[in-house]
Amino acid sequence: MRDFLLYYGMFAIYYVFVINSLYLFIMMFSFKSIMGILKSSLYSRYQALSGSPHVPPISILVPAYNEELTIIENVRSLLSLNYPEYEVIVINDGSGDETLNVLINEFNLQLSHHAAVRPVLNTGKVRSVYYNPAYPHLYLIDKDNGGKADSLNAGINLSHYPLIASIDADSLLEKDALIRIARVYMENPEETVAIGGDIRIANGCKIEDGIVSEIRLPNKLLPMLQSIEYLKAFLGGRIGWSAINGLIIVSGAFGVFRKDYVIKVGGYRGGYPGEDMNIIIKLHKYMLENKLPYRVAFCPDAVCWTQAPDTWKILGSQRRRWGRGNLKNMIEYGRYMVFRPKYKIFGLVTLPYNILFETLNPYFRITGLLALIGYVLMDMTQANILLIYGALNILYGFLLGIGALLLEEIAFRRYPRFQDIVKMLFYTILMFFGYRQIGVIWRFLGHIEYMRNNNSWGTMTRTSWKAEEKKTISSLEVRG
Amino acid sequence: MNSLVPAFHQFLQASRSEHNSCGIILAACKQLSPTSVSYIEEALQQKSTGLHMQISYDKNTRLLAVYLEGQNRSETHFFSLQVKDVLQERGLLAGSLLIASFSESKQATSYVLQRMIQEVMELAGYGEIKLFFHRLDGREETAGSILLVNHDETVNEFLQIFLQQKGYHVTIAQDGMDGVQKYQELFPDLVITDLNLPIMDGYQLMERIKQQQTGPASKIVVLTDKKLEEDVKKSFALGASDYITKPFSPVELAARVKRLIS
Questions:
Q1: Closest of A145, A23, A75 to residue A396, by C-alpha
Q2: Which of these, A64, A301, A305, lies nearest to A173 by C-alpha position?
Q3: What is the pLDDT of residue A479?
Q4: A229 and A265 in contact (C-beta within 8 Å)?
Q5: Nearest by CB: B198 against A52, A85, A209
Q6: A89: three-class secondary structure by DSSP
Q7: Cβ-based neighbour number of residue A192 at 10 Å
Q8: Cα dihedral: B72, B77, B81, B83 (round 10)
Q9: Per the UniProt entry, what is one GO biological process (chain B) (predicted)?
Q10: What mean pLDDT comes out for the span A101-127?
Q11: Listed residue (A174, A181, A227, A239) closest to A203, CA to CA
Q12: Do A209 and B229 touch (CB under 8 A)?
């Protein structure tokens, strides 16, 4: 027993060591490609591009469920993007509140009887389509509640352009975010199937007329921690993963896709959270199985500001949802693709990494810690192992945090004040005392939820967006 | 918008029926409380026997305006000495005074008042009384008023200075809604607008302008990033006189503007 505990404890230490080393390795790719990204965006003339007839038109899909407080501001902001040709399709997913009516009143929308909805993807029943010629680029779909994925599919059915952008209704795009992403697409329009944008936390920022006018770090604890977390994930992680074409997720809050391939892989999967990761896995699978050259790119300078949950309860439900979605995707696709040479980098690196270090992370962490504690309790002289474990964890995490901050400071400098940098550093450390551990537990709870649902109601459990309580944040708070 | 302008309109409406001339005195003051404003009003009322006048004070610009009914320039000038006395007595004067008088031939418009407000704020010195000449000859005559609707602050600042040097009176609006409001206040000779604007886009702005046109038409120039023929077509359909794409040459823009309002 004692030996087992010791070896398991050692294993946990190695596990932490390997996961962090790998992460560091991925981050090195981020550093390698950031300079290239920076230069190419520096030399790009976005202003000229944003009026150019050579830029591909994009359909922006905005699924909205109970968004009556913020939807007007968001749609107005989307209608004034710097982009030559695009349309905004808002999909009201059977909201229980006044989302539909505030939109109809604000934009004087009329029922449109001859809107061409092509049923290329199956969706919940579309009740009606609204349109006003005075806003020629705005469409509103009203449909029965069916979840976010279902809404996106309905949007695809109506969309007129070859590219689609999915955007959360509680997120704000920077004015040139779309043109920046389009430039990445235009570098290689044949092979680029999906491009992700950078998501940042808007809490604390000043927002006027749907435009982030003053960038500030959040004042509250939770949004601030998430701010750092997002910086690490997007700058440290996703740039690196995209450099080796192993990106497994394009955030649902802001991503651009080639419509033809999204349709070929059957559109978004409903019924489960994690549809954003699901669509990317399916795209990888389709392209690799058909031996088509492709890339899933990431564009760190296309920024989308989103509202972070600021209570433990809402954050917890979001993280449990993520855990559930991740597990579902791994069970549904991951295990059939992992370690198959056919799936190249994606099957040999991304998926093993994701399964071992993301999906199974809570089990290793929790049992490892228990083993160590058990061992120390049995034999007090070995308390230093526990300390090593803790110190290793923090040291590595801090290193990764610094790396992400460094990337931010080299490339973007969104938070120019010195005090902001100090604040970010402080929270990078603070993260390891409680927040990370709770995150692991949430993920674990998400897995439990998944198992429960599976046992009691079979595989197809409908989850409406009701779980996404963060949508209740009012526009007033946004300004606060 | 300066609060003096609506007060002035109110005054004009109340008095226009009987008289056809009026005097305006603008004085740069210190921060005034409502009580000191009413004190000034009382003091002036005592000095002006039987004269209809109105006082208003704008907190942001710290300007005190005195509107006088039926006064020509010399009468206004005389009264301005009393205004100066009252203000100096209490130590409320911060700069100089600017006076003007409008008769029937020279219409008092909010545009002229705006010019006066600008000028009095630029005046140096203390306690001096300057006459405002709203001549309708020379440079003032050829130059027109331009409303610039654009969201890019750098371009706005540059174009405002550039066009002002050419003698135009330039007003800036940051978004479409602001543009419509300022258009209704000023009725400028020419509107330069972007198509891509927050809250209300350039097309809607042009439509509103079209609806509201009663007198002589304001010319519209579209200045935008958009190079799509669809946008060009639609702009001209909505009544634009010219379509200029960015990056643009300011010299060319000025030349085109000059052609449209001369």
A1: A23
A2: A305
A3: 34
A4: no
A5: A209
A6: strand
A7: 21
A8: 50
A9: phosphorelay signal transduction system
A10: 90
A11: A227
A12: no
- Rg of chain A on CA atoms, in Å: 22
Of B198, B225, B230, Cβ closest to residue A76: B198
Report all structural domains of chain B as residue ranges with CATH numbers, in order of start: 4-131 (3.30.70.270), 141-260 (3.40.50.2300)
* Dihedral Cα A444, A450, A453, A456, nearest 10 deg: -80
User: Taking residues B44-52, what's their average pLDDT?
Assistant: 78
CB atoms within 10 A of CB A221: 13
Nearest residue in chain A measured CA to CA from B207 = A134
Identity of the residue in A51, A79, A210 whose CB atom sits nearest the CB atom of B225: A51
Three-class secondary structure of residue B226 per DSSP:
coil
Asked whether the beta carbons of residue B225 and residue A76 sit closer than 8 angstroms, the reply is: no
Kindly list the residues from chain A whose CB atom is less than 8 angstroms away from the CB atom of residue B201: 79-80
CB within 8 Å: A134 and B198: no
Tell me how far apart the alpha carbons of residues A75 and A77 are, in angstroms, rounded to a whole number.
5
CA neighbor of A445 nearest in space, from A357, A317, A340, A354: A317
Given an 8 Å threshold on Cβ–Cβ distance, is B247 in contact with A85? Answer: no
- How many Å lie between the alpha carbon of B200 and the closest alpha carbon of chain A? 8
User: DSSP for B108-176?
Assistant: --HHHHHHHHHHHHH--SSS-EEE----SSTHHHH--EEEEE-S-HHHHHHHHHHHHHTT-EEEEESSH
Q: Are A194 and A296 in contact (CB under 8 A)?
A: yes
Q: Tokens 């404003």 sit at which residue? A: B37
pLDDT averaged over every residue in chain A: 87
Question: How many cross-chain Cβ pairs, A to B, lie less than 8 Å apart?
Answer: 45
Which of A243, A184, A192 has its CA nearest to residue A44?
A: A184
Q: How distant is the Cα of A450 from the closest Cα of chain B, in angstroms? A: 43
Cα-based distances in Å from A399 to A27, A30, A34, A185, A429: 11, 14, 18, 33, 10
* pLDDT above 50 for A457: no
Percentage of chain B lying above the pLDDT 70 cut: 89
Whether the complex's predicted ipTM is more than 0.95 is answered with no
Q: Which residue has the tokens 């909205």?
A: A64
Q: What angle do CA A204, A82, A470 make, to 5 degrees?
A: 35
A371 phi and psi, to 5 degrees?
Answer: -60, -45
Angstrom distance (rounded) from CA A136 to CA B224: 18
H helix or E strand, kind and range, residue A107 = helix A99-107
Among residues B168, B174, B181, which one has the least CA distance to residue B150? B174
Residue appearing with tokens 């704000």 = A172
Instruction: For residue A53, give the nearest of B197, B204, B228 by CB distance.
Output: B228
Model confidence pLDDT, tens digit, residues B82-122:
888 888 888 888 888 888 877 654 555 667 777 788 788 77
| CA A298 vs CA A115, A149, A177: distances in Å | 33, 21, 12
Determine, for residues A51 and B226 on separate chains, whether the beta-carbon distance falls below 8 Å: yes
All residues at 6 or more sequence positions from A418 whose CB lies less than 8 Å from its CB, including other chains:
none
* CA-closest candidate to residue A64, choices A6, A4, A135, A146: A146
What is the model's pLDDT at position A353? 92
pLDDT of A475 higher than 50: no
User: What residues have CB less than 8 Å from B104, skipping those under 6 apart?
Assistant: B20, B21
Q: Where are the alpha helices (DSSP H) in A253-354?
A: 259-264, 275-289, 312-329, 335-337, 344-345, 351-353
State the pLDDT confidence band at A469, using cuts at 50, 70 and 90.
very low
The partner residue sitting opposite A51, judged by closest CB among B197, B207, B224, is: B224
**Helix B153-165 with B250-260: angle, nearest 10 deg:** 60
Average pLDDT over every residue of A373-382: 74
Chain B positions touching A77 (Cβ under 8 A) are: 198
